[in-house]
Design goal:
The chain is an alpha/beta fold. The chain has one domain: 2-enoyl-CoA Hydratase, Chain A, domain 1. It is about 45% helix and about 15% strand. The chain is built from ten helices and ten strands. The chain has a six-stranded mixed beta sheet with strand order 1-2-3-5-7-10, sandwiched between helices. A four-stranded mixed beta sheet has the order 4-6-8-9. Strand 1 and strand 2 form a beta hairpin. Helix 1 runs parallel beside helix 3 and helix 3 runs antiparallel to helix 10. It starts with a strand and ends in an 8-residue tail after the last helix.
Length: about 230
Amino acid sequence: MPYLTMTDTAAELFLGTQGVELDETNPENRFNRAWMAKVSDLIDEAVAAKKPLIVSATGKFFTNGLDTDYIFSGAEPLPTYLDAVHALYAKLVSSAVPTIAAVNGHAFGAGAMLALCADYRIMRSDRGFWSLPEAALNMPFPRGMAGLLRTRLSDATVTEAMLTSRRYGGADAVAAGIVEEAVDAEQLLVRAREVAAERAQFAGDNLGMIKRALRLPLLEDLTAPTPATLL
């Protein structure tokens, strides 16, 4: 289950489970309901502490996105589940602290989009891909996800990424504007902490107001109910 580590300068949210490289119950850090609730609570904790928030993970994956086993189980209607994913995005996008994604491994689908919710993104240069596999999997993008991608990426990049399911390594992700930097694995958290320290002075309610104004059309997309006719 995700956990938070507090330092003097930042809150570090890890999407895996403390003390293990892989959580056997969720080795790919997929968006199950309990996982999303925990991530949401930890974001709230970082914001309450008014510390920059670094989001990273343990293991091979940053996150492999939607919990397809849960979706296909029919435990709840798909639109309701997607609305919960969108709510998590909205919380991170508008959080009143600087946010930095330190993408330690594969970031696919909803996990790739979670990285885009951060203000600043750093990716490993030696391993891991950022990708939107939905076209290859014959899956649509709901309004909230499409709005997030359209807002955070250039038209050329979002068109290629959404329509071709291309996998971007670190250098390609920098060139496409998906992430700001790609660094060696041992420098990933070091660099994320440097960026957090540089931006720490801005944490607080005013930053949240600025973000909400900046992302108002996106927040409207993310909070719009997903229609039952999506699939």
